[in-house]
Design a protein that fits this description.
The complex is a heterodimer of chains A (268) and B (353).
Chain A lengths: L13 H24 L5 H5 L2 H34 L5 H13 L2 H12 L6 H8 L7 H26 L3 H8 L4 H12 L1 H16 L3 H6 L10 H11 L1 H30 L1
Chain B lengths: L2 E9 L2 E9 L4 E5 L6 H9 L6 E6 L2 E5 L3 E2 L7 E4 L11 H11 L4 H14 L15 H13 L5 E5 L7 H17 L3 E6 L2 H7 L2 E6 L2 E6 L1 H6 L4 H7 L2 E13 L5 E16 L4 E4 L9 E12 L4 E6 L8 E5 L1 H7 L6 E6 L5 E4 L1
Parallel strand pairs in B: 3-9, 3-10, 7-8, 8-9
Antiparallel strand pairs in B: 1-2, 1-4, 4-5, 5-6, 10-11, 12-13, 13-19, 14-18, 15-16, 15-18, 16-17
Helix pairs in contact in B: 2-3, 2-4, 3-4, 4-5
Classes of the chains: A mainly alpha (268), B alpha+beta (353).
Amino acid sequence: MSRRGRSTSGRLPLVLLLPALLGLAFLLVPLVGLLIKAPWSTLPDRLFSADVWQALRLSLVCATLATALCLLLGVPLAWLLARGGLPGRSLIRAFVTVPLVLPPVVGGVALLLVLGRRGLVGQHLDTWFGVSLPFTTAGVVVAEAFVAMPFLVISVEGALRAADPRYEEAAATLGAGRWLTFRRVTLPSIAPGVVAGTVLCWARALGEFGATITFAGNFPGRTTTMPLAVYLALETDPEVAVVLSLVLLLVSVVVLAALRERWIGGLR
Amino acid sequence: MTLYADVQVSRGSFELALDLTVEPGEVVALLGPNGAGKTTALRAIAGLLALDRGRIALDDTVWDEPPRTFRTPDRRPIGVVFQDYLLFNHLNCLENVAFGLRARGVEKQTARLEASRWLETVGLSEYARTRPRALSGGQAQRVALARALATDPELLLLDEPLAALDAGTTLHVRAELGQHLNRFEGRTLLVTHDPLDAMVLADRLVIIEHGQVVQEGRPTEVAHRPRTDYVAQLVGLNLYRGDASGTAVRLPEGGTITLAEPATGPVHVAFPPTAVSLYVEPPSGSPRNTWPAVVTGIEQHAHTVRVRLDASPSGPADLLADITPAAVADLHLTPGQPLHTTLKATEVHTYPV
């Protein structure tokens, strides 16, 4: 029994190996390029410039608010899909996942049509409450939530469907109503799924570009989040764009690391 | 207050129709093979499944009466011990036991105090802060029982409470469960496929097959007067109560059974009819249980013949023996015929009452 690369399935076919390596390079080289081209000497100065901090802070605040909104609406929606016994459930699930595959720009246009000042809902928001969402920070939150919520819903619904509903029955026989059962039994048992969904949702919201620029525009300090700032900087000062990109890359890697831990931990 | 349950549930071609009452302090065992509808009946009574027809009521309080009345499980005064216990893994044992009290609006400190009292009752005080995952099967069953009893339910439902345990611990846990059920003043409905659990724990057996009741009565009655082949096979068991002292168990109506392992105090004695042998002449050698007996009945079963005997005054007054049809011919068995019976002490099992 030699231990030198003896594989039971024979040698890897070149037809598969070559494109596989090419694919790997295709995914990695741009990121490596980002690192190589980074202006390391001037990095600290640029990183701590007011513009970068403003965009970063706005991004973090908006992504966090959007995630909170998604949690508030998405977890009950996931529960409804998994436990509600709704007719046409798979159709509703399909609708929920539409923003997942929809080009974000289209989402932005749709939001503008509905929530814009003359939109279906927007005009009432304006006349009744004096609230106008487009081109505001609140608009950024709405756009990000619209795009990111499916990630949370899918993740939480998966966890709910994997959770044994008999624990909820046990809680009911102990006198717990459905709300108490949800809070004290269901939610703790799906916590890993909720955390994974929240992280995914937050990461998606942080990177949101298309829907945000369409619905909220690009106003520094108000709606210019990191991705928008990168795009903007690319036209004026490419080095700043590289620095901003590096920051986003760092955040993504941290999120990925946290997720892997969660996912692998949850599967064990 | 009596529980009346007229449970009628349809599941495709399967029809469950079961009439059942449970009096306070009574333990009723619902016994039957897998797929007989036992668990369906338990779920219906717990409110985890709605009746299609029929009625479930505790005295005048209706729990389920289609098409109008239905109380959800949380509005029925019940406690359920599930087959695999379903203890909440994110809560420790104390919080598990306190869960029902908290859900029913008991204030936190009171609930915890009451819960720790229950953990003490089932002998698990030192496990209050332990997560259920870390418990053995027998311990988990006791926590589940404490959790179900903590809310002081009118009706305790047990779904195969001993099925998830390994054979070694079953004996001990069964005896303990029996003690808790004796002390419980409410009604108990026990669902099981194990005739021994049913006979040792229950005051009354309700045997169901294919969703129908085939026989009902006290354990010894059912064991000795099985009405169908199926019941005979299921509960065909010689079961007595007696007082053990060393290796001898004295039966209340006279007669002694010798054991292989010493025991003390009041016990159930059980052995299968196949452990009893019949002889025309007194057997040579020295089997420890040898009783002269008289044949009182002969029943033909699928592959065996069940012989009913009276072995008093030296042995049990009602004794069952399973023998082959060939042996019946050899012995020329007829009712009233005197015979000699032997029982191997190693085949006799005792259970503390």
